[in-house]
Amino acid sequence: MSRSNRERTEQTRQALIAAGRRLFVEKGYAETATPEIVAAAGVTRGALYHHFEDKKALFRAVIECEAKAVAEAIEARSGSYDAPHAWLIAGTSGYFDAMMTQGRTRLLLIEAPAVLGSLASATIDAENAEATLRAGLAAMLPEAGAMLEPLTSLLSAAFDRAAIAIEAGAERRQYEQAIAVLLDGLADHLRR
């Protein structure tokens, strides 16, 4: 395949993902039909099925892009910090900033588990935002040992609940402070 064909193929794929995202946010997964997606993307139905097995596969690609964007925002915000605690606090802010993108909380935390299943959704998270959290916790809490995985899972759930609450109108600063208290408490407890 020539470079221009590869570029056109990738442009078509990205157009489908962008159109799918827009419609999934606007209408929800269940209410979005594939003819609407292809019309919004300006491609044929055949192009959709060339790139994605079905609507669910397109939705998964949208979720993977969203999850990657969250992880990148966390890393961008926390990358300039050397101290693990400061890295995690900056990453917290990066996570909440990333989740402020219109529709992202609904897509990642409500629709994805419902459409893809909780295991597939958790796997995507584990490879993205949760992976950055795990790395930060491992650096901050080297004594966590076998507790690193459950601590990561529990804190990840806390972040997700906070994002849902913030989207519903709760005060973000209070949740950032609560995460800091949780992190400080974990560090204090494990160092005793």
From TrEMBL:
Pfam families associated with the record: TetR_N
DNA-binding region: 33-52
Alphabetized UniProt keyword annotations: DNA-binding, Transcription, Transcription regulation
Residue ranges annotated for the HTH tetR-type domain, each copy included: 10-70
Descriptive protein name: Helix-turn-helix domain-containing protein
Lineage of the species this protein comes from: Bacteria, Pseudomonadati, Pseudomonadota, Alphaproteobacteria, Hyphomicrobiales
